[in-house]
Here is the input.
Amino acid sequence: MKPTRDADDWRPTATLDMLERRATMLARVRAFFARQGVLEVDTPVLVNAAVTDVHIHSARVELEHASQPYFLHTSPEYAMKRLLAAGSRDIFQICRVVRGFEHGPLHNPEFTLIEWYRRGFSLDRLMSEVEALVRALLGPRGAHRPLERITYRDAFERELGLNPLTAELEEIARAARPLGYPSAAPRDEQLELLMAALVGPKLGRGSLAFVHRYPASQAALARLDPEDARVALRFELYCEGVELANGFEELTAAIEQRARFEGDREERRARGLPAPEMDERLLAALESGLPPCAGVALGFDRLVMLATGARHIDDVLAFPTPRA
Here is the structure.
């Protein structure tokens, strides 16, 4: 039985004018990186290994006659790092990625990332480059916004009156209790909820706000700050309460990255989630020698929303997943 369809659901959800504005913004991205001498690359959408990150879910693909399952990439990060380890110069990519459990006004399972890597860049230098690109793409909506750089600790202290690095679990749970979250949940899970629900939405109101120095337990693929091992060299960019970008000074140590992947897998098993095998090709690339670098992923669709005043991600996409 064929599913019932609305008479107009063949049409794009974004206006044709909006799609032209997207194309113009993408052209600006390419022009920006051309001026910086950054090479555009293209890596596979279909990959052999799922991500181990507890909060990101890879879509599994079964190819006919294939001897193994494949996955749609959630980011081009691993492949781009393999290019850097092989000797590539600075690189960027504009690509579609797919993540499970992503749906809502700011989320579509398939979305567009701008991701780039700069050899020898510090976190501060990368934040400055992200700021320059975002201002260029936001146009009049970004030109005169003040800039704020604030540590993760200071953002929590300002908005919630607690120090996320030193607060007892009971204090964190008390802050999360009005959100209906179980007080027995792990520390980082509660901090991430507080960031998503109470801290993040207040950031970047009338400004561009870079939150940096996340707790070491939330480092993901970032290296730790050599001056304070409690925090990682990681930032996120917020504008009007919306997270736009996530960047790192990249971890280059294969042994440490393997340990983090294994920690992710243990946490996934504890939560009853699939625990995929680690990406051994990435680990081999790190072992061969990833040069010191910093990288960032920027959500293009959300940036289009901010540049155009759109209220829902469907308004800036030709065909969101339900209409794909």
